[in-house]
Amino acid sequence: MIExxxxxKHHKTDLRTELIAGLxxxxxxxxxxxxxxxxxxxxxxxxxxxxxxxxxSAALATILMGLWANYPFALAPGMGxxxxxxxxxxxxMNISWQAALAAVFLDGIIFILLTMTRIREDIVNAIPTNxxxxxxxxxxxxxxxIGLTSAGIVVASPATFVTLGDLTEPKTLLAVFGLALTGxxxxxxVKGALFWGILGTSIAAFTVGLVEAxxxxxxxxxxxxxxxxxFTGEGGLFEAGWKALLTVVFTFTFVDLFDTIGTxxxxxxxxxxxxxxxxxxxARQALMVDAIGTAAGAAxxxxxxxxxxxxxxxxxxxxxxxxxxxxxGLLFLPFLFLSPVASLIPAQATAPALILVxxxxxxxxxxxxxxxYTEAIPAFLAIIIMPLTYSIAEGLVFGILSYTILKxxxxxxxxxxxxxxxxxxxxxxxxxxx
Length: 434
Description:
Blueprint: H1 2-6, H2 15-29, H3 32-41, H4 47-69, E1 75-77, H5 81-92, H6 97-116, H7 119-126, H8 129-151, E2 154-157, E3 161-164, H9 170-187, H10 193-207, H11 242-270, H12 283-300, E4 305-307, H13 311-316, H14 322-332, H15 347-360, H16 373-389, H17 392-409, H18 418-433
Antiparallel strand pairs: 1-4, 2-3
Helix pairs in contact: 2-14, 3-4, 3-5, 4-12, 4-14, 6-11, 6-12, 8-11, 8-15, 8-16, 8-17, 9-10, 9-15, 10-15, 11-17, 16-17, 17-18
């Protein structure tokens, strides 16, 4: 049944590889179980209810991705989008969290309609091959940067923006140990090296007292905030004014759209899932799952659900089919009752895996055409902007805009597709008005 459903042999993988890949992806993104409710509770939402919604929405969307699209991509409420939801929309613009959920739900409905009309699929397929390769590399640097900051190896600096952290700090030393351990396992070609590295580092953290056993191992889940979206009436989305409404809905839609497209392109390029024309098979199914996840997440009471860049960790372990995603999604469900257990996996244990996934994602840079500057400059901008702005979407925007402009200025405008022209115009409008 598993073979018929996921076609493991066709994708040159096996059950054990997919299971380990699913475990690895889950362990690199398990932090969202706690981080998302912590951020949204700052805006007045109930911590326990958001945690339940986070787990349920991640499980639903990720399992659906595996069963319907047969891709190893995991989904959950997105980082960055949840901060915008809580601090900018609710606290900064003084919009109720019920109205903010309505905006996210509207974002999901817009995505469903765009996917049904093939617009999102056309955007994915219209992006040139060199930019697709660059997105994969940029995501690699972005993931590595996330890992380095989680490890404490790279920290913020008011003078230079970032600088080297304190390498004598115990938690940073733990991350360095994990990096050495995981690197050794990779060098020895141990199957599931990233997973065993995370597990070994977590055990080391517990052994030396950097992680303590939870006071209780089982906790009953709080009820999620079912259908609390508010469109009209006092505190409703449509009462916020047209400018606020446009800004909020457009920002949610824009960032989610290009974060998702960037993640799908980057991870699938690394996994060699694109066809000979550079297109992603079953792109419509993958994009529809993302759209459904966003709408369902809002109905449960959480911010935008999106494809997770940490999926690259499972792909790096050999995950090639939807079975990886199904395993990841199923692993979320026990944490409705076992949420204290997730605290035994510290950020410093998953950081080495993210750093090394960044290394794996660098390979496509060898295929980028650096001889043609109308191709090389957009690719370079997409690569460098992603980690420096902490945004996949912004990297993709700079890549597409510079590609269109350089081709036009070089007298090669015919090489730019209509979709790329339309996207570039949309980006210019966005920079001017929002």
